[in-house]
């Protein structure tokens, strides 16, 4: 069982992480680099002179982008390890696990780790005003935990009480509110911040869809291989 979890998570997480990293380099990285030009003061959009929305950006950086790819693969492998472990529990309760149902698991993962915390604590580009990072990490972690429990109750609770508890868990962090800065003083144009948030959510959705699909696929394949070998 443990080897099945580990092998499935490694293959699925590495594959999904690699694709997610490439999507980030193509769609998110240019927006990030653009924001850094305003963060460092190289570009300033306040004043009477208009600023080009299409500056010349650095190309592929082997060290920075290579490490980004590696860390993204490791991060998604960690996420996948948790997902596959939960899949094994769900299968023991009679749930069918394959690539098709894995896609649903992936969407639940996206809601848990991206959409739920991002609903109030939106993805932030460099240079924007933000509250203390420790306070934001605590709120983000609490929101992910409550959203994850809510997703499990919706999927496997099976009664109205479970659904009500799930709805309360999903809303509670946002009713409490995320840590906010005392004032807004960021130098980055709002258009860049909005595009960054949209791209971050889009790439996150694609990545989690791949995580769930790959996890379900490799979990099924490893299960069939184990049955054949037995």
Question: Which terms summarize this structure?
Answer:
mainly alpha; about 230 residues; about 75% helix; single chain
Note down, in words, how this protein is organized:
The protein is mostly helical and 230 residues long. Helices cover 74% and strands 0% of the residues. The mean pLDDT is 92.
Give the topology, please.
Elements: H1 2-39, H2 62-92, H3 99-118, H4 133-156, H5 160-176, H6 190-229
Helix pairs in contact: 1-2, 1-6, 2-6, 3-4, 3-6, 4-5
Number of helices: 6
- Overall number of domains: 1
- The strand count comes to 0
Low-confidence stretches: none
Helical content (DSSP H or I, runs of 4+): over 70%
Oligomeric state of the chains in view: single chain
Secondary-structure-based class equals: mainly alpha
Main beta-sheet annotation: none
Shape: flat
Radius of gyration: 20 Å
Average pLDDT reading: 92
Q: How do the helices and strands follow one another from N- to C-terminus?
A: HHHHHH
Pfam families: CbtA
InterPro entries: CbtA_put
Keywords: Membrane, Transmembrane, Transmembrane helix
Transmembrane segments: 67-90, 102-122, 137-154, 161-178, 198-219
